Structures are given as structure tokens and as C-alpha cells.
Amino acid sequence: MDLGLAGRSAILMASSRGLGRACAHSVAREGVNVVINGRTAADVKATADYIASTYGGVF
Q1: In the chain, where are the structural domains located?
Q2: pTM for the complete prediction?
Q3: What are the tens digits of pLDDT across the range 5-59?
Q4: How far is the C-alpha of 27 from the C-alpha of 23, rounded, in Å?
Q5: Which residues have C-beta within 8 Å of that of residue 55, sequence separation ≥ 6?
Q6: Phi and psi of 41, rounded to 5°?
Q7: In sequence order, what are the residues at sequence separation of 6 or more whose Cβ sits closer than 8 angstroms to the Cβ of residue 50?
Q8: What is 24-50 written as a DSSP string?
Q9: Cα–Cα distance between 29 and 15 in angstroms, integer?
């Protein structure tokens, strides 16, 4: 479904694991540039790398 969000940016809190990560995937899939946030650098890096390689658009 096209939500008309492509090209926009979003800051997603607690987005390196769990439900926050699923939300980051959902908006990234729609073409939104996302900022990933989480407790540990390792979790943030893993999530950001995966989303960037799959959808692009991670800051």
C-alpha cells in the first residue's frame, strides 16, 4: 500500500529491536528515510545495516 510517505524522514525511538524495529522496517519499506535509535550501539548498527541494505535511507 502506498501511504504517500516516500522521501520524508522519520525519527523512530526504540527502533533497534522488537516492535520499534518492525515499525522502522514498515516505514522504510514505504520509502521513508529513518533514524534508528536503541540501547546498544551493536543493536543500532545491526538494524541500520539491515534496513540500509534492504531499503536504503537510514541516517
Answers
A1: 9-54
A2: 0.81
A3: 888 999 999 999 999 999 999 999 888 999 999 999 999 999 999 988 988 766 6
A4: 6
A5: 25, 28, 29, 31
A6: -60, -35
A7: none
A8: HHHHHHTT-EEEE--S-HHHHHHHHHH
A9: 15
